[in-house]
Amino acid sequence: MKKILALLVFSCSLIFANAQSFKELFLKMPQEVCPILSEYNRLEIVDNQKHDKTMQTRNLFRTFSTMKELTDDYAHLVISPQSEKEFKMLSKNDGTRIIMVISTIYCDKTPDSSVAFYSTEWEPLHTLDYYTLTNVDHFRKITIDKDTNQISVTATNSPLLLQNDSDENKQKPFVLNYTLHWDSEANRFILND
Asked: Are 174 and 156 in contact, with CB atoms under 8 Å apart?
């Protein structure tokens, strides 16, 4: 009887270990993935959610980081006004679960994102095994008008959007257009008004 009970407990622990929610994985996340948040900060965010409080914590830079959304398979963390991370649990065809982390920083209003993939043990995975790089010309075009010395930049995220069947969570493309002109007094390019 004890052997059967021990086998049952062991089997259940294996099932639950494989079915970890992202909240549990977020607490076990190594600090290298998000250096600005300590283990205490992550615990405070999850604890605030349990108590229906704002999921906010004072990070290691002594500013506030806020978790906008935290579910069993997704998280959106605003680290600072200039940076954020999104985490998504994905399932491969063989049922193996992996974690996708999109890190975004903002320079002015232009986002610059990078993507990384991890196992559920937070071991880094080779990104190009899960993501095909697009040609930079598909989402950013820089032209120079030689007559006026103006630089025009057009950026879009359309080629980078992930396919999603749900209309309510559908990502919307953005297009940014801005022009800079050379200011000889400042000796640099200045954004046009």
From this structure: yes
Q: How many domains does the chain have?
A: 2
- Does residue 69 contact residue 49 with C-beta atoms inside 8 Å? no
Give every strand in the sheet of 188-191, ordered side by side. Answer: 140-145, 150-156, 175-183, 188-191
Structure tokens at 189: 């390019």
Q: Using one digit for the tens of pLDDT, what is the confidence trace for 39-89?
A: 999 999 989 888 888 889 998 888 999 999 988 888 899 999 899 999 988
DSSP codes of every residue in 33-82: TSTT--HHHHHHHHHHHHTT---EEE-TTSSEEEEEEE-SSEEEEEEETT
Distance CA 92, CA 88 (A): 13
Burial of 104 (0-12, 13-18, 19+ CB in 10 A): middle
**Same-domain status, 145 and 115:** no
Task: Give the three-class secondary structure for 146.
Answer: coil
Q: Supply the pTM of this predicted model.
A: 0.62
